[in-house]
Design goal:
Uridine Diphospho-n-acetylenolpyruvylglucosamine Reductase, domain 2; 3 domains; five-stranded antiparallel β-sheet; four-stranded mixed β-sheet; 7 helices; globular; disordered N terminus
């Protein structure tokens, strides 16, 4: 690889997002390509922006320009899946929708809701520490991480954890990388615990005159009913609406809905 100067005027710029540009996009379909680029970047003091679905690329303390954009969307698919053990290993660029479809064939799921699941990647969810409404009962992906493969900034590839829930001892690097935004390492694959998919679910929406009343009502319902998996408040027509989502056995969900 040859380093391109950020000050070069004859090199085309690729816009990853509004006001975020790179001089070259490197596509990685294998972990070795990630190691190669990061090793080169370290030795040549080049900057790299890793991305997958680009859902959160403009979030936080973003870099407006870099030498390279590292496209990880080609690292996708299932590496290993053990339905009986409730564990799965996938490449970091795997879209959430694709993963859920595979798990759904066995009545299982990753208990997380994310917008635009066809674009949102598993690696992106882990790297950004995203947690949707179901964190109320199911936690975040940090609680489901049992292993990962990653590449350090110097290009060294490494692994941590495994595919067995209770075989990890010492410092839990996978959880440490959760929410690190790619600043510590670039994830190439993740191993996750999965859960049985609830047989029944339903949502009910109630409106309240103010935030205080809505909050008290929501907290009371959550404390009293374990079938409730998420609770979201939002403004609607001058009032405060609360959407309560119940999941589980049909009898429990029906009782919550009534």
């Amino acid at each position: 690889m040859t380093m391109t100067s950020l000050d070069a005027t004859n090199v085309p710029l690729h816009e990853l997002a509004p006001d975020i540009r790179v001089h070259e996009i490197v596509t990685a379909s294998k972990p070795g390509r990630v190691s190669e680029l990061l090793a080169h970047a370290a030795s040549s003091q080049s900057s790299v922006i890793p991305f997958g679905g680009k859902r959160s690329i403009a979030t936080g303390n973003r870099i407006e320009a870099a030498h390279y954009g590292l496209d990880l969307a080609g690292l996708r698919g299932v590496i290993a899946y053990e339905p009986a053990d409730l564990t799965i290993s996938v490449w970091a660029g795997t879209p959430l929708a694709e993963l859920q479809a595979v798990l759904g064939e066995h009545g299982q799921e990753i208990p997380i809701d994310a917008p635009l699941p066809d674009l949102t990647t598993i690696g992106g969810l882990v790297a950004t520490g995203f947690a949707g409404p179901r964190r109320l009962r199911s936690g975040s992906l940090r609680d489901l991480l049992i292993g990962c493969a990653y590449v350090r900034g110097d290009g060294l590839a490494a692994k941590a954890g495994g595919m067995v829930v209770k075989n990890v001892s010492g410092f839990e690097i996978p959880r440490f990388l959760h929410g690190s935004w790619g600043a510590l390492a670039v994830l190439t694959s993740v191993n996750l615990k999965v859960t049985p998919r609830p047989r029944t679910e339903g949502t009910v929406i109630a409106t309240f005159p103010d935030v205080g009343t809505a909050t008290n009502a929501a907290l009371g319902v959550i404390a009293a009913d374990s079938a409730i998996q998420s609770c979201v408040a939002f403004k609607r027509a001058g009032e405060v609406a609360v959407a309560v989502r119940a999941m589980g056995r049909a009898a429990a969900v029906n009782e919550t809905m009534t």
